[in-house]
Amino acid sequence: MGEDAESPKINHTFLRDYVTEGRAGADVISTVEFNQTGDLLATGDKGGRVVIFQRETESKGESEEVGETGDCGEYNVYSTFQSHEPDFDYLKSLEIEEKINKIRWLPQQNAAHFLLSTNDKTIKLWKVSERDKRPEGYNLKDEEGRIKDTSTITSLQVPVLKPTDLMVEVRPRRVFSNGHTYHVNSISVNSDGETYLSADDLRINMWHLGITDRSFNIVDIKPANMEDLTEVITAAEFHPHHCHLFVYSSSKGTLRLCDMRASALCDRHTKLFEEPEDPGSRSFFSEIISSVSDIKFSHSGRYLLTRDYLTAKVWDLNMDKGPVETYQVHEYLRSKLCSLYENDCIFDKFECVWNSSDSVIMTGAYNSFFRMFDRETGRGVTLEAWRESSKPRAVLRTRRVYNGGKRRRGDVGVDSLDFTKKILHMAWHPSENIIAIAATNNLYIFQDRVNPETQLQ
Asked: Is residue 70 pLDDT above 70, yes or no?
């Protein structure tokens, strides 16, 4: 499965690209996440900043002009705020980076929006709300907010609300700290809407959104002697429908499904998913490239999508003997593992996502490439996120990496790949064919414009 095809059944016509640029380093995007409706898109960067984009509603004139192409409005900057600042752990003499590792939106309950953001140690809950009215006519304050001299007040008035320019307010509502000794790599909101989990290298904690000073440890794989440590937790996620189920992956390539109804401490998993290793193909790099960098439940809740260094795999919760689908993302790099190990690229953590119908998966690669695979046919396509895609009605071009055999025009040789241009973070709109791709400090938003009624298949 997963071999490239010249004409895969994947509709890859997109347009629009929104680029956010700044100084290299602090503005490198480290996470991307749509909210449940897809109207908001949040990005976090290495400088601890969160940028929220809002989908603008199209006007009637624009709708008539577009006709059947299905223009759904642009994503424009809605709010920007500093989520985390650099910190220092004086007990361990360690600097704590402000980099945003993950962002997760909470289900919307009222007019306001809530999101969780985390760096290596501290998780914060933010409230995003709008205000288009301001009170006027205070009795004890003047128009500039200064306290009046009470001796000058001769009458009382009723304050009134008057229209004002729309303001977006972002306020911290909760700070969840001191819950992790090691670096937080995952947060996941439970389907009950009241709890969420956070995972680091050795432990997984469950928090209540209303309680900040304590959490409940539900997984602890730390050995009594750290010299006996053989694996670490790489990612964790709650089941989308069953609040008692969650899954976590490890650096050994295994997945463990846990049921909180069976035991309060889920050190004993309910199911173990792993693929038997072929002894004949084992090498020095086997354990490194088998480490799972990301894990995602399908929208239906039946399947798991995982990404290791070379492949993306789909697992059926009812079949724990091995993956039901395996897609080769960049198998052509297998001969380059030695040099990739030397420049640390072999430790890059690529993410993976489902489309809204669970029929197509997407994940990233090098050279600003990203891959899409049609699950029905098993065929894949390589696309490139680049500046020319931002031109009006531009079409994303398919690319192919040349690794022997017949070379076609436009093919990119393996030795010509730029390993500094990597697509690690991405998100797929929850109900439409809109994808967000983070390429270092650039954010691209592409939309399927050929037929909005169909999925990418």
From this structure: no
Distance CA 278, CA 282 (A): 7
CB neighbour list of residue 399: distance below 8 Å, 6 or more residues apart: 367, 369, 382, 383, 384, 410, 411, 412
Amino acid at 78: Y
Distance of alpha carbon 422 from alpha carbon 437, whole angstroms: 11
Per-residue model confidence as pLDDT tens digits over 330-355: 999 999 999 999 999 999 999 999 99
| pLDDT score recorded for residue 2 | 46
Q: Taking the CB of residue 265, how many other CB atoms lie within 10 A of it?
A: 12
Cβ contacts of 141 within 8 Å, gap of 6 or more: 147, 148
Long-range Cβ contacts of 82-85 (<8 Å, 24+ apart): 82/48, 82/49, 82/50, 83/44, 83/48, 83/49, 83/50, 83/117, 83/119, 83/124, 83/126, 84/48, 84/117, 84/119, 84/122, 84/124, 85/48
Task: Indicate whether 452 pLDDT > 50.
Answer: no
Tokens of 51: 């940028």
pLDDT in tens, 272-296: 999 988 777 778 899 999 999 999 9
> Of 245, 217, 222, 244, which Cα lies nearest the Cα of 232?
222
First to last CA, the chain: 16
Q: CA–CA separation, 131 vs 144, rounded Å?
A: 18
- CA-to-CA distance for 293 and 311, rounded, in angstroms? 11
Please say if the pLDDT value at position 64 is more than 80: no
- β-pairing verdict for 401-402 and 412-413: parallel
Whether the per-residue pLDDT at 253 is higher than 80: the answer is yes
Cα(392)–Cα(385) distance, rounded to whole angstroms?
A: 15
Among 311, 304, 352, 353, smallest CA distance to 330 is for: 311
298 to 8, 302, 412, 417: CA distances (angstroms): 22, 6, 33, 31
Q: Please name which of 356, 352, 362, 360 lies closest in space to residue 429, comparing C-alpha atoms.
A: 356
Which residue is it, tokens 């907010």?
A: 145
Q: Which of 55, 184, 69, 182 has the alpha carbon at shortest distance from 117? A: 184
Question: Which pLDDT score, from 0 to 100, does residue 17 have?
Answer: 56
Whether the pLDDT of residue 60 is over 60: the answer is no
